[in-house]
Amino acid sequence: MSKKRTITVNALTRVEGEGALHVRLDGQTIEDVRLNIYERPRFFEAFLKGRAIEEVPDITARICGICPVAYQMTSAHALEAALGIEVTPEIRQLRRLLCCGEWIESHSLHIFMLNAPDFFDCASGIELAKQFPNHIQNGLRIKKMGNQLMTILGGRAIHPVNVRVGGFHRVPLRNELTKWLPELRWALEAALESAEWIAGFDFPVFDLPCELVAVHHPNEYAMNEGVIASNHFPPIEVEQYETHFEETQVVHSTALQASRREHATPYFLGPLSRVALNRDQLFPQSRELAKRMLPPASMPNRFAAILARIIEVVHALEEAIEIIQHYREPSQPFVNYQAQAGGGCAATEAPRGMIYHHYEITDDGLVAASKIVPPTSQNQRQIEADLLHFLPQMLQQTDQTIALECEKLIRTFDPCISCATHFLTLNLEHQ
Amino acid sequence: MTVMPHKERLRLAVFKFASCDGCQLALLSCEDELLALADRLEIVHFLEASSQPQAGPYDISLIEGSISTPEDVAKIQTIRRQSRRLVTIGACATSGGIQALRNWADKEEYLRSVYAHPEYIETLATSTPIRDHVKVDFELRGCPINKGQLLEVLMAFLHDRQPRTARHSVCLECKRQSTVCVAVAKNLPCIGPITQAGCGAICPAYHRACYGCFGPCQQPNARSLSEHYLATGTASTTMIHQLRNVNAAAPLFQIESDRLERREAEPRNG
């Protein structure tokens, strides 16, 4: 007997941006799983054309209010590649510090307000705070420290104003940073305690084999620079990204989907991939946590992404303390350049995964063409592939439970739907 | 903060249209106030933060984002009918946002430049502010909004009074902070003199020109300002781009950028 049903989640919650999920079932057969991104298109690549390269970091920041720094960093690095300039080691360190700020802020928001409630069947972080007031309050204070780093280095936490091609508009005075060392040390201790709390959660297991991809650097936990590493294929230079990966458009989404070009397979980005590929580059305390809480495995459990995030928060706090302790004000806030025609690209690690930008510029310093590939559009196919394999074990459950559990799996990716559109409603269709 | 006698909590809803989510994030960025706020306001619809959205009516609806698709036009009407007070938050909702740059472009060309199959995408030719579609009770400016101003608006409505946010220009904030004027000292085409305060005058404090995140201030003289910059060496295109940014379609910025563009298009003598 054929029993057809459709399950729909019209508006995915506790994710950034708007999307839906549609699942169509025929008895025990899953006919279709579609992650429907209905976030409105905003056409960034179109209106970047003809703008001065100096304006680009301010404009691309507006793609995403949760990870504006990742957009600014990728733009700046890609444009610097096009101009053939390299920033000084001091500016490079300050940029890592700014990224640490965004990772701390974005990860803490996801851990404490968006993802942790799933482990206790709470609707929100505010509801979870009634059960665990100290953990959530500490989480919000850690998050605030991330915001603070972005505010010092960027002027404000959302859409900071200080990043420019070549460096920064203004570099901070030493004491503007060092006065935060006590709070950073508090936040590090609190993050270590949070990691122990989270490690005690009851984790569902879903570890479908997949390709893990992340930027990799031999000497540091990759943020802004490195090769594109994978557990399936040899590493490639960032310049080869478009040869190996492609974006295609599907009917049900305003976000383009990315896949491996020659194999047409999805791939998985984000903190779990980074910890898997870059664990040796973590700072000591976070490396120890990773060894104990996320030991090397053939495939990461998607539901353990929250552990990878808190490990990265610990890393970012350790590194921020180290950078600030050694900080000396550089004599020049930025490197000068002369506009010249050319092309350049960069891949950096946004909190939710690798992000790729490519710009072609004219000899008078205007954008001639651009390509922006956000992490969530790259993860979108992997989310659909995961759901397709996650669903069979749940078919005996009610539609409501299926929808709820699918949404939890999607949330582990920390999807950023606003970014992807240039992502998500759960629509489960039983026919 | 005074503690009010515990009345029934106000029902707060947050809705999103075309936007980056940054202004909603400002609400989640009230780390110190967030849990306290939840005692006074019941956040009953906030997809980004809670998975139990409740149906209206709502006492206060915060609207992020601009109207840019046919569905949006209908959705905002429904939200208006369910909301006692409707407050727009951020540049997208109050002026159309950065995506209003499409208002100057050929939509079909824009679609083609981003999507291989433009026929799958449903979108309007324009990105417009909420006020163009429904009555708005209060507009909170900024790209992003300032969380202090957001708390002021929520507190004002909790106490049944009008919110007080500054309408003067960024210049006053610079003077108050003793920030050196980048227009005077560095000849940068700063649009702080015609931009509403609220950000804390951060760009000049970081040695760069304001690019108008909070939109036009009260009674700005945009024409006089751009004429001054053009006369002192700023290229016309640079000035147009300064005005055509995150608040490109705010009427007072738009009038001036269009004027400059028309003038550029006129044939020159000699």
What does this entry look like structurally?
The complex is a heterodimer of chains A (431) and B (270). Chain A has 431 residues and is an alpha+beta fold. Chain A has a domain at 46-209 and 279-376: Cytochrome-c3 Hydrogenase, chain B. Chain A is 42% helix and 17% strand. In chain A, strands 1, 2, 3 and 13 form a four-stranded mixed β-sheet that branches. A three-stranded antiparallel β-sheet of chain A has the order 10-11-12. Chain A has a two-stranded antiparallel ribbon with strand order 4-5. The model of chain A is unreliable at 422-431 (pLDDT under 50). Chain B folds into two domains: 10-158, 3-Layer(aba) Sandwich (Rossmann fold); 170-265, no CATH class. In chain B, helix 11 (236-243) runs antiparallel to helix 12 (251-265). The longest helix of chain B is centred in the C-terminal third of the chain and has 15 residues, at 251-265.
H/I helix tally of chain B: 12
Multimeric state of these chains?
heterodimer
Q: Helicity of chain A, in percent?
A: 40-55%
Report the principal-axis shape of chain A: globular
